[in-house]
Amino acid sequence: MSFILKKNKTDRIIDTVLYTSLVIFGFATLFPLYYVAVMSVTPIAEVLRNGGFVLWPQHVTFDAYYYIFKSNRIPDALKITIMVTTLGTFCNLLITSLLAYPLSKKYLPGRNAVLVSIVFTMLFSGGLIPLYLVVSATGLLNSIWALIIPGLVSSFNMLIMKSYFENLPAEVEEAAKVDGCSDLQVLGRIVLPLSMPIVATLGLFYGVNHWNAYFGGIMYVTDPSLMPIQVVLRNMIVTPSVSQELGLNVQDLQVLPPETIKMATVVVATLPILIIYPFLQKYFVKGMLLGSIKG
């Protein structure tokens, strides 16, 4: 026998308020992305005719994308960003898992002292100047490693992965060790394959952080050929001459307003993450719930 739960007037009012709030929140979130995409393909004449605000272009042009890829600045910056994101995320996950796995074992000598020291770094830090001095003293300036090594491990992500490892059945690891596997083999062949939800979740966190990072590029990199896309975009926003930042002639950009070039660059810098996110979203709930830190 099935029962149909009927909602009273109060429940319907609450549902209406909730759905209305979600619609407003979704619109406020998506509208800036839509506006940036529209402005990046709107001709200059239509932009000027509408006072710089266009919601639905009558004509579409991809000249802005043509000019930003005509310059070597944006493609080179994308290559650096892709390299830093790929290599950095791999190194992040490798070191995080190598640190989290032994700390998930309660019999590890000195485990509590190590955990306390890791939590301490979440509350206190040396500051910006000591960090720069360390990066400079180790010879990392003007290299892609300066964008990777200073943030190699996130203490918060490591604690989440440690808690996830603690929830795995110990019998599986014990059986692998009986078969002659070492600790590293257990981690690589047993633990990590069983931990793909948390690995994918933290991998996306690390990857998005690398892709959107610009402060490290400003701090540690002065070579224009090594600057990531976010630094180039930031320079385009603050510079008075977009053509100078892109290395193009002023005549090449007379057919487009600077704002259109900037909007197209924002789309190019955002689109890869928007494409990758849906494929990893399914791991979020399972990964974060099972990897949540126990009290």
Automatic annotation (TrEMBL):
Sorted UniProt keywords: Cell membrane, Membrane, Transmembrane, Transmembrane helix, Transport
Q: What family does this chain come from, according to its entry?
A: Belongs to the binding-protein-dependent transport system permease family.
Q: Which InterPro entries match?
A: MetI-like (IPR000515), MetI-like_sf (IPR035906)
Looking at the UniProt entry, the stretches that span the membrane are 16-37, 80-101, 113-132, 144-165, 186-206, 261-280
Give membrane topology per the record. Answer: Multi-pass membrane protein
The family database entries (PANTHER family) matched by this protein are listed as: ABC TRANSPORTER PERMEASE PROTEIN MG189-RELATED-RELATED (PTHR43744), POLYGALACTURONAN_RHAMNOGALACTURONAN TRANSPORT SYSTEM PERMEASE PROTEIN YTCP (PTHR43744:SF9)
Per the record's keyword annotation, is Membrane included, yes or no? Answer: yes
Q: What is the lineage of its organism?
A: Bacteria, Bacillati, Bacillota, Bacilli, Bacillales
Q: Main site of residence?
A: membrane
Query: Where located?
Result: Cell membrane
Q: Which Pfam families match?
A: BPD_transp_1 (PF00528)
Q: What is this protein called?
A: ABC transporter permease subunit
Q: Which residues form the ABC transmembrane type-1 domain?
A: 78-280
